[in-house]
Amino acid sequence: MSITARFTSLKALCTLGILALGLSVPQLFGQANKPKVNNEKPGNRGQVKRVHPHALKLILQGKKEEAIAYLKETAEFAVNPEHTQMLLDIANGKSDTWKYDAKSWPWERVLPNTSLKKDAPTDKFTIAFGGGSGYVPENERVWNTIGALEPRAVLLLGDNVYIDDPETLEMQRFHYYRRQSQPEWMHLAKRVPIYGIWDDHDFTTNDGWGGPAIDEPKWKREVWKIFKENYDNPYYGGGDKQPGCWFDFWIGKVHFVLIDGRYYRESPKGDNPSMLGPAQLKWLKKTLKKPATFTVFCTNVPMTPKVKPGSKDTWDGFSAEREKIFQFIAKQKIPGVIILSADRHRSDAYKIDTGIDGMYPLYECQSSRLTNQHVHGLIKHSLFGYNKKQSFGRVDFNLKADDPTFKYTIINIDGKEINSLTVKRSELQFK
Questions:
Q1: Are residues 142 and 2 in the same domain?
Q2: 196-207: per-residue pLDDT in tens?
């Protein structure tokens, strides 16, 4: 039996089981309608990051005695004992242990401040970026490594907290609490502007999408509201009338454009699906036209073809819309565009030949293993790649040079420079 046939048979059996339980097929297979929650009980050391979410889930389900027993059983993992004690206190009914209202959370909450230093240079500066930062206690030191560079800003491009539970608001807030209560994060957030967009794991579930409607599924707007509680971006999409997390900002003559690739994403299995939705695409075209020395297009998933073989979760699943963006850049003759992306659990550099006459190659810098343990294999058609340790991307802009440059460097969690790429502004112009 072929793999396809086996999958079909398995899906059929699962469907029968689901129907027997009184659930609908879309609840399992239609992620935009009913996302499949992924906060499974950890069974080994590699899943200790899920100890506390699982315990909280039990508490929220009213299974307090089971939660207490589970927390005591998993205490051997020694993962953030203070979190374990806090959840034990909640399960035992201690008052005021936990507040779900963001304004009264019981920790020194440090909201990233995106107010750029007015006296800092704008013609020569550094930013850091990355994604893939599920909460892993031993890897939280990466925030110290980033802070040591004293970047002008940090861009988090998705999978920033790994919630995988869009319908439980308490779970959403708990995951942000875990990150923001840690001293490494707090130290960085007090010193450096941090901007954020989301991807599947902090918006919905693995490879999930929101669909074209503004308020369907109902959890979309609430997840968006909680996201806004935790990032101080300049603005959020089109506001209440058009929710989303896209925005732009400037450092000198460098224009940063960050998109939302999940809120309005359609199923990649449909005909000519959209990742952005019409309102965001209209905004993007208008925003890209603004004159800049470099325009930094930041996306939650890679644009380079075949960086996730066999999957449509990257821009490969939305190739027609990707082509629209490339054609727009070419038609408007927008120079100096570079791409930053995340999602794949490694750091890479790519050179995209769009195949459009007269258009310069697009360089894509990808980094998405800030703290994650899980790693993805390297891609042969990358300019270079790295996946041995956690890492992030450093981008240095030098607008003082006669021919301005950007330099992308992969930095691992220990602060070691791995690979770098330097591109001149003159290389990013139309013939």
A1: no
A2: 999 999 999 999
